[in-house]
Amino acid sequence: MVYPILEWLLRNAAGLKKRAYLARYLVKVEVPGEFMAEEQIGELHQQVGYTVGVYPEGYIMNNKMSQNTPKSGYRGVHLPN
């Protein structure tokens, strides 16, 4: 039972690694209602929702750009924290 699962994991490691990376940035943040009453919290929640919505497009575009550039150390766009 364990060996077929390990075989599947190892065969799909690249795709699973990408999915795990993207999952961190695509999780919607749930904020309790009592905190949403504050204007700043509501605005931040909307900004996070928007960013989660547009992140996949930027990720895809960045991957296409990095595939089209020579491998001379280019690693995509670095955004500061």
Write a structural description:
The protein has 81 residues and is mainly alpha-helical. It has one domain (2-67). The protein contains 4 helices and no strands. It has helices spanning 2-11, 13-26, 33-36, 39-68. The longest helix is centred in the middle third of the chain and has 30 residues, at 39-68.
Task: Please supply descriptive tags for the structure shown above.
mainly alpha, about 80 residues, single chain, about 70% helix
Rg, rounded, reads: 18 Å
Structural class call reads mainly alpha
Overall number of domains: 1
Q: Which consecutive residue ranges, at least 5 long each, have pLDDT under 50?
A: none
Q: Biggest sheet: strands, sense, closure?
A: none
Topology diagram in text:
Layout: H1 2-11, H2 13-26, H3 33-36, H4 39-68
Summarize the structure.
By secondary structure, the chain is an all-alpha fold. Helix content is about 70%, strand content about 0%.
